[in-house]
Amino acid sequence: TARMLWTATYESSKESNIRQNAIEHLRAIRVDEDVTRLQEAVNRFEQLNGRLPATIWELAAAEHLRGIPVDPDGNPYVLSLDGQVQIAKPEDFPFVTKGLPPDYKPSGLPKFHGNS
Length: 116
Fold this sequence. Notes:
With about 120 residues, the protein is mostly helical. Helix content is about 45%, strand content about 5%.
């Protein structure tokens, strides 16, 4: 799997830029998995209630989560009005494939976590 490959890359490399790249990909994998799970929860909620959850808090309560779901940086995931789970700061996750706002356009080169 991608997680295994990036973990192996991180563990086997001594070059900091390669290790940082692996970390960014691992962070993106976690976000993509989180968004997938949360989107499935939104779909369940809608099937059971005949409507979308009004907030991420309502979704968390319905799913009996221990709190508001957050990304690897601790930012809560966002629930759009049309029921799409999104990340709050997409610029902090250059390799994610899920949870991007529909109008999001990355600016320039990827910004790695911890870099300005």
